[in-house]
Amino acid sequence: MKHDLRVGNRRRKGLAAARISIFFFVSATAVTAFNYFIFATVGSPLPSGVSFAQIPVAKLHSTHAISYIEALYSTPVTLHYAESTFQIDPKDVDFTVNGKAMLQQLNLPTLPIRFWNTLNSRTSSQSHQNIPLKATYSQHKLRAFLENVSQRYDRPPFSPWADPERLVTVVSPPGWILNVEDSIPVVEAALFRPNKRSATLVPASQASPEPDISILDTQLHNYIKLRNFDGLLSMYFVHLNTNTVLHRNWMHAEALPTGPGIAFSGMSIIKITLLAEFYRQVTENALPYELDLVSKAVTESSNWTSNILINWIGDLDSSRGIQRLNQSYELLGMHSTFIGGLYDTEDPPGFRHTPANTRKDINTRPDPYMQTTVADIGRLLQGIYLCAQNRSGLLTDIFELQFTPNECADMLDWLSNNRIGVLLEAGVPEGTRVAHKHGWGDGEPIGDAGVIYSPGGDYVLVYYLWSPDYTYWDENSLLLADVSKAVYYFVNPITP
Q1: Is residue 130 scored above 70 in pLDDT?
Q2: DSSP bridge partners of 439
Q3: Cα(197)–Cα(295) distance, rounded to whole angstroms?
Q4: Does 221 have pLDDT greater than 60?
Q5: How far apart are alpha carbons 465 and 463 in whole angstroms?
């Protein structure tokens, strides 16, 4: 009897244990099934090793991962352009992350395996992968945005202009405009970066326009009109770097024809031709007393010494010296330049009719003994300069080996030693080299002719000023200093 009771107790205990086991199994199955349902419907965290556009998104549900990526790529991009900084919102160019396409590229185990790996904290070997960014934007809208930036922030250089008060030419500093087409890929790259979301736009630099000779022409014309100048200003300018020429005659601020030139008294300006003829005839190094003649004739403007130099040119015969000078003028094409006698002579002049002194519209009553024009002297100075630079130009074209670069350089050195502090020299900054010869007399025309050396280029400027009644020094010499200043700052313009 006792045996049956023990057997019954064991059966009941076994049955209870079985029921408990079944209960826990069913419960575990139900919980697992519920979690699997949630896992399958709500979304599973992405496994370790998964990244979108190099951004780790493990442990995030797929929808959260895409939202995170979208947030990163929605931050504005900072743009730098020249001196300005601003931002572009990706929405302004319809930048959109295609999350669905990115998720479809994921190569993950099947849902049951991923659920099982999640329960067991396992990482699938296939989960180590990076999904490239899938995004689109409107290039049309980006181009429109950049074109608007160009309109607002470009700084193209302005055109040169002349300041009528300061008598300077003003040029623009270098400018820039936006290179829209080259900037598009730069901004695009920044839009597609999750960090370092900035870009430097591509400018296209623009050089400042060079001032045209018409600016100087207009400036000088307006200047003499504003000064109410009632006489004649004749000038010849040539930029020795560009060979640009401005030759003008203004009488009462009205233009007169430049051809065939206007005849002026040669005065001391024509001594430049004595200098050139002296070096044409010197075959070896000049003797000290010969150089002393040159020094006194040019730097001291001694008429007496100039006559001795003419005598030397003629082999101690002044008439032959005058003849040789006039022959050289003709060979050089200086057809309105002549010397008809020595300085301060009372002998009858050897007057010559020239194209300049036979014109009918203007007569400056030039000295019958010696005459020239601004163009004749200007071309001669240009020839001396080019000869000194590279043995080219008028002198060597006509006289070939009779001039050497050293001789031409010596001529410019002598002219540079002529320092007077007025006229050409008064219009240029202190320290500027001016190789020139001036000329004026009581009531006579005022003139100066020289080569000016400057940072913006070397140039020749020859000018005469004459008034029909009397050419007063004070006001007219200041006018010529202003003309010299305007020319200097045309060759050497300033920037604001």
Answers
A1: yes
A2: 447
A3: 73
A4: yes
A5: 7
